Amino acid sequence: MPDHYGYEVQIDNHPEKSDEDEYHITGTLYSLQGVRNREQVTEDTVFGHNAALACHMANESYFRKSAVNWDAASNQIKSY
């Protein structure tokens, strides 16, 4: 592989998978199978929405450099 800024770059085409990787792959496959077959998956859309919302709130808090909360009435992330 070419030299970049004095460092030899090596790419591992076959990285070892951990148990955590298998867990994520399996969860994704179950979700896709549920969508394909129109079946209920383990986590519903509300669970997914709340998980994504928590990530968005963490990002907003970081960039605003202050604590934030969720205002359900207006569906907005608000600063304190």
Provide a descriptive summary of the structure in words:
With 80 residues, this protein is of the alpha+beta class. It has helices at 19-37, 45-64, and strands at 3-4, 7-8, 68-71, 76-79. It has a domain at 45-80. The chain is built from two helices and four strands. The chain has a two-stranded antiparallel sheet with strand order 1-2. The N and C termini lie far apart (51 Å).
How would you sum up the major sheet?
2 strands, antiparallel
| Count of separate DSSP helical elements | 2
Structural class: alpha+beta
The neighbouring-strand order within the major sheet is 1-2
Radius of gyration, whole Å: 20 Å
Mean pLDDT: 76
Low-confidence stretches: none
Considering DSSP H and I runs of 4 or more, what fraction of the residues is helical? 40-55%
What pattern of helices and strands is seen along the backbone? EEHHEE
Give the amount of beta strand, in percent.
Answer: 15-25%
Number of strands: 4
Q: What general outline do the C-alpha atoms trace?
A: flat
Quaternary structure type = single chain
Calculate the terminal CA-CA distance, rounded to whole Å: 51 Å
Task: Describe the structure concisely for a colleague.
With 80 residues, this protein is α+β, with helices and mostly antiparallel strands. The chain has 2 helices and 4 strands, in the order ββααββ.
Identify the notable features of this structure and list them briefly.
80 residues, alpha+beta, two-stranded antiparallel ribbon, two-stranded antiparallel sheet
Write the layout of secondary structure elements.
Elements: E1 3-4, E2 7-8, H1 19-37, H2 45-64, E3 68-71, E4 76-79
Antiparallel strand pairs: 1-2, 3-4
